[in-house]
Design a protein that fits this description.
133 residues, mainly beta, Metal Binding Protein, Guanine Nucleotide Exchange Factor, Chain A, 6-stranded antiparallel sheet, 2 helices, 9 strands, globular, binds fe (iii) ion
């Protein structure tokens, strides 16, 4: 799947295609409660795709246990798969992570991650779809 082909759908289409939780996170920027998501502790090998558009976002090889209750990765599968945006909501300055293809909200990236990148992509489970290998 080509991550450069952008997906754009109407709000009504997204609402119809996504589950209520996926819609709230991907389209409205909500955050799922920690330790509740399907992939918080998953160690299965595979590729995590965007639950909105199917773009390949993260590989299980870069997933690590962050203790936060959200799936955490030290880098995207390919840098171009995601888009980073300055987020000043909730009286914090954070970096939002968005799927480049469908612009769905995925989570945030922080600079307290492990080697080799030092980054921690903190991603909502329900924004992801694991394709195991
Ligand atoms: Fe997407």
């Amino acid at each position: 799947m080509d991550t450069k082909d952008e997906v754009s759908k109407t709000d009504a289409q997204w609402r119809e295609e996504l589950s209520p939780d996926q819609y709230a996170v991907l389209r409205k920027g909500a955050t799922e409660a920690p330790f509740t998501g399907e992939y918080a502790f998953t160690k299965d090998a595979g590729v995590y795709r965007c639950a909105g558009c199917g773009a390949e976002l993260f590989d299980s090889d870069t997933k690590f246990e962050s203790g936060t209750g959200w799936p955490s990765f030290y880098e995207p599968k390919v840098a171009e798969a995601v888009e980073l945006r300055r987020d000043r909501s909730l009286a914090m300055v954070r970096t939002e992570v968005v799927c480049r293809r469908c612009k769905g909200h995925l989570g945030h990236v922080f600079e307290d991650g492990p080697r080799p990148t030092g980054e921690r992509y903190c991603i909502n489970s329900c924004a992801l779809d694991l394709e195991t290998r």
